[in-house]
Amino acid sequence: MRAQEAAFRFSLLVCGHVEDAEDVMQDALLKTYRHVGRIREPEAFRTWLYRTVRNACLMKRRRRVGEPAHFESTDAGDEREEGRAAAVDVADRAPGPDELALNSWLGERLRTALGSLPARYRVIVVLREMEGLSTREVATVTGISEANVKTRLHRARVLLKERLEGV
Amino acid sequence: MSHPHDPECVRLLERVSEYLDHAVDEATCRAIEAHVRACPSCAAVIDGLRRTVGLCRETGDRPVPAAVKARAQASIRRLLGTKEPAGGRTPRKPDRAR
User: Which of A56, A57, A62, B22 could share a disulfide with A27, CB 3.0–4.6 Å?
Assistant: First the structure.
């Protein structure tokens, strides 16, 4: 699959909105054109692109929910997010054509459940389960250890299961 | 997790993701399977997690909706200042290093 398409899909899954995903892709592509010449290995390019998209998604999401515009790593533990549905406004808007298309693509139940996960868990589950990256690649993209990827993936799966059962 | 806090169940459930990923050794795998045969609660949790993972992977195989993808491509072309070429392909692709 072309990297551009994979990156767009990843941004859709993490952002949860078409407009945000488009903005994220534009940011990511501009960065890509500036830096891609320095990347020689295809695998390094893949993880670099995912990392760039992930960072842009998190920036976008923080701006959307009114949090500070500067980048704050989601790797800093914020256990508060686990106790509630994260403030992704999937269910807050009347569904337009894009929303309906995404609901049809993912299934409304999965989309809502995925959107309710804390971002640091959503990123892991999307990269590992939907994009098919290895644990090592996910660690490279997210900047955490492989052991932490495994721990976070487990928690993400448990949370997602609970949210799916609650939808 | 709405599961009893039996220490053996808790120990098992900590490793269930590795079990689902076939990343536990044979002895651990056998121990988990023996426990699950005798513990309907853990069996239900594992079954639910397996279905959750399966749903995600199945979804990951589906292509992005065509209309959404086309709009994103148009947006990217505008950003890059290019016109849509014959055949609908963007002339300069960011994945050229692949």
Answer: A56
